[in-house]
């Protein structure tokens, strides 16, 4: 099956969306329009539980209030500019924001769950060498509305309202899309708090994973305030190599990063920290690397996700061989640490791990072959 591409016409210009407002803010909107405070609870239910896209659908809200809401506000989502469906069922949306900037969001269907990969920034500031998003300059942070809007677009397409429903397709969220979520913590936290509320979108914190390249001070705050699962983009076992692959390591080196992982709130066998490790041929995939990795994370409740490198236009890295990956995984598993090899999904539409990038943004310089780090 060949991937399909659908292009959608731009919607009409709308007013400020109520998506992204919490219960107190929705209550304030209702009161400002002359309604009783309990109407804020109704707005919350219609927006986040039922996922309505029109005020006319809010049947329990008085018509006079609906008219006032329609005159001043909208329930608009980001505009779907492109919708790609891969041969394996993975879906990717290119979403155009109100200011014209673009982000990408990916839905990965599996047998017992469906995971939405959500972006937190337009572009990225981290410049990780193996990541396509890292070739794109950071433009700005996403608002809570723009973060939530990605989920709501996906649920609209998947017919996943109301929420929760026993046959829902979108069950999990990973903050692993474009950007570093801990560099946009306040907006990410507000959006995820709305997502986790049982009276609204109702996705449990146990089903939400936030991925970071290692913004150490904010990892502590994330654990204390959100309590979601943590994934750390590790990718190297020495500071020398990680400085090159993940430049943030120069600010927060391995010892400091792993120290905060050991004290991350709630980290235990049932809620292990995930260490992400992209397998780069001849760079970080040796037996010595695997043994050092065991030494680094062996005392942390952890699992290691081994990610075969997913190529993208202009990339100069290569994917490790299957034999190298198998040997690497065995060393880690023999040490009692789970080391699944992540299945590549959606690579035919550039939706796999490390392949997200919005083509409308100006790229950074693409590294040359001579720029490659040496392990």
The secondary-structure class comes to alpha/beta
Return the CATH topology of the largest domain: TIM Barrel
* SSE topology string: EEHHHEEEEEEEHEHEHEHHEHEH
In spatial order, strands of the major sheet run: 1-4-5-6-7-10-11-12-13-14
> How would the global form be characterised?
elongated
Q: Low-confidence spans: pLDDT under 50, at least 5 residues?
A: 1-14, 364-375
Gross CATH architecture of the largest domain: Alpha-Beta Barrel
Mean pLDDT score: 88
Counted by DSSP, the helix tally is 10
Largest sheet, strands/sense/barrel: 10 strands, mixed
Structural domains: how many: 2
Approximate strand percentage = 15-25%
Name the CATH class of the largest domain.
Alpha Beta
Percent of residues in helical segments?
A: 25-40%
Would you summarize the structure shown here?
This protein is an alpha/beta fold and 375 residues long.
Structure description:
- The protein has 375 residues and is an alpha/beta fold.
- It folds into two domains: 20-74, DNA polymerase, domain 1 (Orthogonal Bundle); 79-371, Aldolase class I (TIM Barrel, Alpha-Beta Barrel), CATH 3.20.20.70.
- It is 29% helix and 17% strand.
- It contains ten helices and 14 strands.
- It has helices at residues 23-32, 38-49, 63-72, 144-158, 185-196, 216-225, 239-245, 254-262, 287-297, 322-334; strands at residues 4-7, 16-17, 73-74, 79-85, 91-96, 102-109, 114-117, 121-122, 140-141, 172-175, 208-212, 229-233, 273-279, 302-308.
- Strands 1-4-5-6-7-10-11-12-13-14 form a ten-stranded mixed beta sheet, with helices on one face.
- A hairpin with a 4-residue loop joins strand 6 and strand 7.
- Helix 1 (23-32) crosses helix 2 and helix 4 (144-158) packs across helix 5.
